[in-house]
Amino acid sequence: MPGRAAGATIGPMIGSLHLQHNDLDFRYLPAAASVHIPAVAMLRAVVDATHFFSRAGHHFILALDCWGAQGSNNPHCGPVVRHGEDLFETARGVIVLGDGTVVAETWNGTFSPGLQPIANTTGVPFDPSAESVLSLHITAAYAAGGMAVEILRGLVGPVLFRGAVASPPQAWAGSTRACVGGIAMGFVPPADTGCVEQLLARSAADARLGFAATVQLHG
Q1: How does pLDDT run across 142-165, given as a tens digit for each residue?
Q2: Segment 99-139, tens digit of pLDDT
Q3: Is omega for the bond preceding 75 within 30 degrees of 0, making it cis?
Q4: Hey, which of 7, 52, 126, 193 would disulfide with 57, CB 3.0 to 4.6 Å?
Q5: Cβ(186)–Cβ(177) under 8 Å?
Q6: Which of 218, 217, 179, 183 lies closest to 203, judged by CA?
């Protein structure tokens, strides 16, 4: 039987995304490791979206279990590097669109990721483009599978979005690496430019997203 996870915590990591290069930016948190299999990983983030959706940012992502890299054996066919690190190939997490749509995404190294829209059970309209600061709590289970999301206005609420989706169990790799990212519609994949990304200013070059993020393992 697996032992109890030690409650490892990574963060908070404080940073900022800027879509000045090819409408895409992302940052990784350091990996959170445990010799025991945790029940869940919790990714908590506070984001300042004041200048994100209003400047043509399309959606931001909060991802866990980020592994692999972009290269010859996946859709982007060439590296997608920000802050000295390549974009992951496989991961699972949540994307938040400016129109209030929240989707659980499983990146699988293809151009057909698994997408599961998450229903908002609060009964409250969710419009992230009208908000400045949001607090997001993402809980991803391993043996049980599934993912739950809660989004609050500001630091303490009220809750604007709450929902969950079922998914198959996720194997524990000994650690998890989280990523915060943002993208806009002008992103041009390296596959369209000879497998070499062109780091040009595109549709959302002035879009920015501030964040503070923490990952916790619970067994």
Answers
A1: 999 999 999 999 999 999 999 999
A2: 999 999 999 988 889 999 999 999 999 999 999 999 999 99
A3: no
A4: 52
A5: no
A6: 183
